[in-house]
Amino acid sequence: MQLFHQVSQECSRITTATYSTSFSSAIKLLHHDLRTPINNIYGFVRFADEIVDTFHEYDKPTLLAEFKAQTYEAIERRISLNPILHSFQLTVNQYQIQKELIDAFLYSMEMDLSKQQYNNQIYEQYIYGSAEVVGLMCLQVFCEGNNNMYEKLKPAARSLGAAFQKVNFLRDIKADFEGLDRMYFPGCDFKNFTYADKKNIESDIQRDFDDAYSGIIQLPMKARFGVYVAYKYYVSLFKKIKQVQPQRILEQRIRIPDYGKAFIIAKAGIRSQLNLL
Question: Containing domain of residue 103, as a range?
């Protein structure tokens, strides 16, 4: 069984590295004990997201329903022949990740199967399920059974997940609308996306980042540096997005080049060594 566990978890690691070089780089900065379970969570999240965002030529509702049923079966039976689900169940069972978090995530994925008019309530529900609960799953790994720490850091973990997701929405606003017919931000119209719309969204994201930072510096040492680097990457991306006009957001995807990512890691490393996080 150990070999099967290893092969399954290697599939999750490869999934993370292939789909997101940024997250993969940040995960490598975590303590060795934490890298595998976080990759296992990412692999699960990535596959679910692929179903609703990519598999347009297939019956996506059926695929997601099957994936959902197989997820719960894997957790209950403690085994799956799907290596992504097998590795995920290992992490869920080892760290006692709450079923409510998995339920909320999969419900948000189901929301993506149909066009939604996002009012504030639905938007907040979607953000919670698609992003905040992922932060909470990771936090359960980082706290390694320390429930008092987990409860204390939950608000900050939710804020960090929300900030990451909202920055993604703002960065990908063109692709989401043109490719998937989605506009997540309540009250916004892609064809009339104004400077005021962008400023309001940015103010909301900035509050999330501010709330998240206080929790990052309280994380256990095994997790703090990797999470801080991911935070700094998204803050840098956010700052770059803030500098451009709304029309440019609608025309192209804003990125941080590889040399910029390397600089973020180097600078964060210096701050960590000087105990300035």
Answer: 2-273
Handedness of CA 43, 44, 45, 50 (dihedral sign): positive
How many whole angstroms separate alpha carbon 271 and alpha carbon 277? 6
Buried b (16+ CB within 10 A) or exposed e, 63-76: bbeebbeebeebbe
What's the structural domain count of the chain?
1
CATH number at residue 65: 1.10.600.10
Please enumerate in sequence order all residues whose Cβ is within 8 A of that of 26, keeping only pairs 6 or more positions apart, or say none.
226, 227, 229, 230, 233
pLDDT tens per residue across all 277 residues of the chain: 999 999 999 999 999 999 998 889 899 999 999 999 999 999 999 999 999 999 999 999 999 999 999 999 999 999 999 999 999 999 999 999 999 999 999 999 999 998 667 889 999 999 999 999 999 999 999 999 999 999 999 999 999 999 999 999 998 888 888 777 788 899 888 788 888 999 999 999 999 999 999 999 999 999 999 999 999 999 999 999 999 888 888 777 877 776 666 666 666 666 655 465 6
